[in-house]
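Predict both folds.
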Amino acid sequence: MPLNLLKFAFRSDYGEPRMFRRPDRLREEYDVVIIGGGGHGLAAAYYLAVEHGITNVAVLEKSYIGSGGTGRNTAIVRSNYLTEEGARFYQASVDLFRDLSRTLDLNLFYSERGHFTMAHSLASLRTQRWRAEVNKHLGIDSQEVGPDFIKEKIPEIDLTCGGHQPPICGALYHPPGAIARHDAVAWGYARGADQRGCEIHQGVSVTDIEVRDGAVTGVHTDKGFVKTTRVLSAVAGWTTHIQKMVGLRSPLVIHPLQALVTEPLKPWLNAIVVSASLHTYISQSSRGELVAGASLDPYELISMRSTLDFAETMAGHMMDLFPFLGDIKIMRQWAGLCDMTPDFSPIMGTTAIDGFFLDAGWGTWGFKATPISGYAMAHTIATGDNHDLIRPFNLSRFSEFDQVGEKGAASVGH
């Protein structure tokens, strides 16, 4: 053990400040109340303070920060979407992510690995070629690659999938594809918002939202009532509960999504591997764990319980791609909640209720959008006008029949 670390362990006063304060009580009034202490809500608070000078902000989290989707995802960052609206939006997020460790003064373990979306048929390969061309048109680094290129970058992969699945015949390769430490992103935004005067209240549940004459006037919580004229809901899988409080309807449905991590291994997988045909995505964390997930569970359910069926199926598909993994141990598995929209694009921005804003519909792609979502929602809350990047994602698109057709290209979505 290094001497400095040993000396630090025996100090009675570490001299290190808390990541953020824990206020004793709620104020009577806030300029903005953000419901949800995940990455999106905390990022919105941070950018409200940094970009717009709005610091009288309360972030209300019923559990602890990052306890929802932020802490229950596989932390993949990419921008190789098919629609122009989606690709531009996620590329803006990648641009912010690349310098976010420096911006927040916290090591987020952001690591560009290269993202492979494997094709197991010629039809799938044509789709990957289409995505690559759209990405290139928008200035996003993506390309179609063949089996030889895949094998060179990932020598351990079995392109034949052991004969159990159709063989891999090519892929969409997205070099900027990256992973990050998801909880550190939440901590960094929380600390940044707190340092600028915003308040983060953990263990506070919102029980109702006061609406008068079509406008927000306050929020009821289990710790009392607070006045506010602007409320942002950023609660992912719990959005349907919040929107009922203001009388809004949306086409959201909630599905569980499961993932797992294995015991740590020496670094060997320096890429993100996604197979839409196997509904599998795999990467290796900075600690050596293999992080793997699958597609949505096929039923609508608000539940964060994981299942044996998922672990068995996931293990089988991992071995189809990497047969030598047969002896490694699964250390833990979990489930998160995915708020899915019909077009596989988010719901963001203003609503029919004056002062009520939505940041929802993130399904399986919410983490990668954290920085730009916070930035765009802060602009929208501060100005009352939807940021240009999120105009296509407004809730009104469903009543206007102007959906963003990401579903056809999302595949496994990660």
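Second protein follows, with its predicted structure tokens after the sequence.
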Amino acid sequence: MIRHALLAGLWAATLCAQTPPSDQTEKKWYRTVTFDGFLSGSYTSNFNRPADRTNGFRAFDFADRYWKLDVAEAVVQKAASKKGDWGFRVDLEAGQSIPEIEAAYGLFRDPDSGKAGHFDIQQALVSYIAPLGKGLRFDGGKYVTHLGFEVIDGYDGWNDNATRSFLFGYAIPYTQTGLRVSYPFSDTLSAQVHLMNGWDQVTDNNRGKTAGFQVAYTPAPSVTFTVNGIYGPEQKENEHDYRQGWELTAVWKASGRVSLGLDALYGHEAAAVEQHEGREHGNWTGVAGYLHTAVTRKFAMNLRGEVFADRSGARTGVGQTLKEVTATPEFRIDKHVILRGDVRFDRSDRPVFSKRTGSARQQLTAMINVLLVD
């Protein structure tokens, strides 16, 4: 009897040694896939009352005096977070503003007519973190641009201001298609390099490629500096005239309630502007400042001021300098619902803004914006 009991105990111990506890068993990859959603709707009123009901030089809030479903986003992803991990992410977008503006040529934007609809695949990429050093990350496919202080609103990040800056709308691309390689050198320094088809292009419009980089430095937990660059040929069937952009962004979290931001950019493109004597180079510069103040746990006030100089008209189509000031009060109804207002005043040194009759050098708009975040 004792002998049988000892054999049974030994057999049980062997099974326990061979079978790891259930909480240590690695999950099947499909059990780590997550689903998230995001919804944005808005109403904008332009006090110029433009006859064509279009707000001039706006990125996504271009429509005057009607409610819009800006975007409905669905995201499915398997995150890659440690060395040896692989993953993927797909962002599906539908709506009356964001998809038709951000859509890339060759996918949901016709490369000949330039038209886009109300649907877009904002991102579709696969990821792998190679077990080299601290982990060398590869992301391949279509993804949002590495440039810019502001982002395309989504479930995992949105801007303090409901409207977008001129820098966001005219100085940088929205998305890129290609390869991104990232490496964290330390807790304070990381870098990326990019090789892509071009600005907002899934199907390249020439035989050249565009390169980009990013270096992020966080000298203290409250301060981050980021340097971005992009360089490559962007004109159709032209591999010789290059477009470039160089940008510095900075964030200072002065306290738990107050943060400051800066976006400064320089851009240049060879032979970008057609003139009577031929094509001339285009240059554009801009700077934007941001202030976020959390007045209470639920209420915040966000301010932005900006100057964007496009003297050659390479980006906006008109040789001009644009300025704007924006105030965005924000009220968090709960963790899933955010209500925002947005009052913005734009001014140009040229009469480029539409009115009910004629044109003006300025426009004033007011917006109501609701975000639903899953």
